Amino acid sequence: MTTLNRDHAETVFRKLEITPSFSTHFVSGLLRKDGMVVTVLHYSNGNADMSDQVFQRLRRALHLTTDEFFEFYSCYMSKQRYLELLQSRLDEPDA
């Protein structure tokens, strides 16, 4: 697995056009679509690599699989494509 760090998290925030809110230990932000909050994201304000647990929380908050998350932050998936994917998951009937 690729090690993630603060730069990767910042890329996600930038791509999703999330305005970061900085605290002593964390950076957080709200992803909004049409004025409604879709999800809340946060990551450590430190410079160290992210633990796998922090990465998994960020990925789950975005409702992405591991492969989709890497595709997203690697710039292969646009914000528009991400929002379409998220909407399609919301439109799926419960299994």
Describe, in plain words, how this protein is organized in 3D.
- This protein is an alpha+beta fold and 95 residues long.
- The chain has one domain (6-91).
- It is 43% helix and 20% strand.
- The protein is built from four helices and three strands.
- The protein has helices spanning 6-15, 52-61, 66-73, 79-91, and strands at 21-22, 26-33, 36-44.
- A three-stranded antiparallel β-sheet has the order 1-2-3.
- A hairpin with a 3-residue loop joins strand 1 (21-22) and strand 2 (26-33).
- The radius of gyration is 13 Å and the shape is globular.
Give a quick set of tags describing it.
4 helices; 95 residues; alpha+beta; three-stranded antiparallel beta sheet
Main sheet specs: 3 strands, antiparallel
Number of domains: 1
Rounded to an integer, what's the Rg over CA atoms?
A: 13 Å
SSE string: HEEEHHH
3D shape: globular
Strand content: 15-25%
Average pLDDT confidence is: 84
- Give the class from helix and strand content and strand pairing: alpha+beta
Query: Span from first to last CA?
Result: 30 Å
Instruction: Specify the helix fraction band.
Output: 40-55%
Poorly predicted tracts of residues? none
How many helical stretches? Answer: 4
For the largest sheet, list the strands in their spatial order: 1-2-3
- Total beta strand runs: 3
Question: In summary, what is this structure?
Answer:
By secondary structure, this protein is of the alpha+beta class.
What topology emerges from the helices and strands here?
Elements: H1 6-15, E1 21-22, E2 26-33, E3 36-44, H2 52-61, H3 66-73, H4 79-91
